[in-house]
Amino acid sequence: MPRIRKRRRDRTEVSCCIKYLMFAFNVVFWLFGGSLLAVGLWAWTEKDTLANFSKLTNIALDPALIFNLIGLTMFIIGFAGCVGSLRENICLLLFFMIALGIIFFLELLLGILGFVYKDWVRDQIESQVKNMIVNYRDDADLQNLVDWVQQDWLGCCGVHSYKDWEANIYFNCSSPGVEACGVPFSCCKPTDEVIFNRHCGYDMMKTSHDYDRNIQIYTMGCIPSGEKWLESNLFPVAGVAVGVVLLQILGICFAQNLRSDIQAQLAKWTY
Questions:
Q1: How far from chain centre, in Å, is Cα 218?
Q2: Residue 95 has pLDDT above 90, yes or no
Q3: For 153-193, what is each residue's pLDDT tens digit?
Q4: What is the pLDDT of residue 158?
Q5: Helix, strand or coil for residue 53?
Q6: How far is it, in rounded angstroms, from Cα 71 to Cα 80?
Q7: Are 81 and 22 in contact (CB under 8 A)?
Q8: Distance from CA of residue 232 to its chain's centroid?
Q9: Do 206 and 181 form a contact (C-beta atoms < 8 A)?
């Protein structure tokens, strides 16, 4: 019987598995970045920031800007990885690798500096939260962010305690408005009421509410509440951080593997 010879795979062949795995991963990455960018631009449109950038007075207190920056970065990197893997473009794959590498080292550097200078980082976070309280009514996105943190995430009120809301001109006890000596509704504890009482925080800083204050509102500030939440969720947070780092490393390794295969194929045509 004639001997059947098996065809050996060319070692310089471009791996379809890595190619389309890179493509699929970056499509998801690209679409997610585009979604974040769209949300940020929509928020700016609603606030008329696109027509008047002078409204962007405090960059650190604009949540929409964070969405735009993260979304744009993910969109560009995802696009480069997506097109580079599909079209086997070594320049786009190189850009993808360099961009991921820069982000990885920045994250590593920030993590090390955050651990070494943790007291300074804590002071900066406190300063930003205080600024958020002062500018609470000036930006709808900022107000929604503060309300979400206080009511839905940490269950807190103010920076260190509910009294920090006196720094806001609307909630200060010397204010002539109806919210004077009060706290935002997001400081209120959940109840069984069908219709939520948005005035539940009124007058809560007055001494006449010393008895029922602990029952009706959160009295612990968001800084100690955030530290307590981090301590109780340390392993899930660390797991997410490690997962993100591994995805970045795998993305760099896959892109380099794909570039090597493409360059090996190009070398055939050269010679």
A1: 25
A2: yes
A3: 999 999 999 999 999 999 999 988 899 999 999 999 988 77
A4: 94
A5: helix
A6: 14
A7: yes
A8: 20
A9: yes
Give the helix, strand, coil percentages of the chain, each rounded to 5.
70, 0, 30
d(Cα 197, Cα 194) in Å, to the nearest integer?
Answer: 9
H/E element, 132 = helix 118-134
pLDDT of residue 57: 57
Structure tokens at 189: 């504890």
Q: In this predicted model, what pLDDT tens digit does every residue of 8-67 receive, in sequence order? A: 444 557 788 888 889 998 999 899 999 999 998 888 887 776 666 655 556 566 788 888
Pick the closest to residue 252 from 146, 118, 123, 99 (CA basis): 99
- DSSP code, position 186: G
CA distance 146 to 152: 10
User: Which one, of 258, 223, 233, 259, lies nearest residue 149 by Cα?
Assistant: 223
User: For residues 63 and 5, what is the distance between their CA atoms, to the nearest angstrom?
Assistant: 64
Question: Token match 């706290």: residue?
Answer: 183
| Confidence at residue 270, expressed as pLDDT on a 0 to 100 scale | 57
Q: How many residues does the chain have?
A: 271
How confident is the model at residue 32, as a pLDDT? Answer: 93
Spatial contact of 18 and 257, defined as CB atoms under 8 Å apart: yes
Helix/strand number for the chain, H first, E second: 8, 0
Please give the sequence-ordered ranges of beta strands (E in DSSP) within 136-249, or none if there are none.
none
pLDDT tens per residue across span 212-251: 888 899 999 999 999 999 999 999 999 999 999 999 999 9
Query: Taking Cα atoms as reference points, which of 204, 11, 9, 238 lies closest to residue 115?
Result: 238
Asked whether the CA dihedral 241, 24, 28, 153 is positive or negative, the reply is: negative
